[in-house]
Amino acid sequence: MACSFRVRRVLAAAAVCVAVSVLAVTQMHVDGGGIGGGGGIGGNFQNAGVIVDAQGVLRVNRVMDQGGRMIAQRVQAALATMDPKLAAQSDSRKISLNRLEKAMAEKLAQGEPLTDEMKFLAGLWRVQHVFFYPESGDIVLAGPAEGFVEDLVGRVRGVHTGRPVLELQDLAVALRAFPPQGNKQTVIGVSIDPTQEGLDRMRQFHQAISGNVSPADAPRIALGMRQNLGMQTVRIDGVSPRTHFAQVLVEADYRMKLIGIELEQPPVKIQSFVARANPSGVARNALQRWYFTPDYKCLRVAEDGMALEMVGQGVRLISEAELVAEGGIRVQGATVSKASSAFCRQFTEMYPKLADAEPVYAQLRNLIDLSVAAAFIQDADFYSQANWSLGVLGDEQKYPVETYETPTQVESAVNVVWKGNVLMTPIGGGVHLEPLKSLDESNKLADEDGKVAAARAQTSLNNLPEGQWWWD
């Protein structure tokens, strides 16, 4: 005789507060870390990325590379043709934004394509410092760097560490979000929201399945949930939705959501919300929302304001909650569950290791670093002091970055989990960036030992040849 279970319906998860997350899948498997899984060449790993179709639906693009042979061939080919100085690992590579923009303008004026060296910022894979030199007007980014190669799904990653490198197009988006004389209240965010109609249909579906059901009904229930929720809508704020910047936010948010609702196994030890959840501690029809924010205590600023250092891991995951009321209306005020808080806390603690293993999370951290750096440059008024107004970096006509399909909707990702005799149907994310918060006096860290100022003083631009915009 088939066993039956008393069903208590718990709608638990992240209906996305501010974040882009749009992968039209219900299950996916994690790809390996680094180039070759954990840094260097070799090993079995999947290359996972995303594509957006002409209808605006974002989907997973995944490629297997057994033994890492294909990526090894790409790395060897890249190193064979790359300038050895560019290919070398550097603890602190410097890039003058003004000189880079001048070099770009010359290329574009002559009708020539930008070099890979420009497009991938000389292999820089993190922003560690921002320096300003008023005597020359140079605004400089500095950080670790190495040679780079495009992987099998289009990410450009370091040949030694496998970490994704910074991209010129993302830098341009960040600078345009915080331009000279621009809005000083810019908020960058992405929101994936179930429609009110979809939430109401889902609530009614929950009511309709009350009674005796068994674990064997899980596939039918998951299908019904997805069909009733329908497509979720995507909203992107603060940056153009037609950019690589926006698509990284989308992918990072969505894959975090899949980890939370146990549809993706992370490469590091993170216990999902579902595994932690005690159904008795989750309100019925509650949406536990998770979203990324910067760690706003991330800047150490020199006393004279001419230099800053990025400190810490830069990314936090935060939880909020809502209730779904009659008619599918979302209402603030539900209590954040202990399981949701614990999931966010562990995700934040493990973020550095996760970013080392999963390129998209390192890319998200890079976008946050670029946004905070751009906000600092704007807030410190380096533009006017340098007599520089972004030039072609700020001109979409001369340097277009809005060249991607706009993600507008996503199929709902739904999981169905039994906890004893209780059925949980978690759905799932978010990104909300207010970079200027990092510059609040309460958040800025003092350069008490003068190391940030000393790092700036060690860099001299006096002997840079004409046209050189990066150096070690």
Give me some keywords for this one:
472 residues; alpha+beta; 7-stranded mixed sheet; 4-stranded antiparallel sheet; 14 helices; 22 strands; elongated; disordered N terminus
Characterization of this structure:
By secondary structure, the protein is an alpha+beta fold. The protein has one domain (about 5-460). About 30% of the residues lie in helices and about 20% in strands. It is built from 14 helices and 22 strands. It has helices at about 70-80, 85, 95-110, 115-120, 170-175, 195-210, 220-230, 245-260, 275, 340-350, 350-355, 360-380, 380-385, 450-455; strands spanning about 5, 45-50, 60-65, 90-95, 130-135, 140-145, 150, 155-160, 190-195, 210-215, 230-235, 285-295, 300, 305-310, 315-325, 330, 410, 415-420, 420-425, 430-435, 445, 470. The strands form 7 sheets. A 7-stranded mixed beta sheet has the order 21-13-14-5-6-4-22, sandwiched between helices. Helix 5 (about 170-175) packs across helix 12 (about 360-380), helix 6 runs antiparallel to helix 7 (about 220-230) and helix 11 packs across helix 12 (about 360-380). The longest helix has 21 residues, at about 360-380. It is elongated and about 80 Å long. The N and C termini lie far apart (about 75 Å).
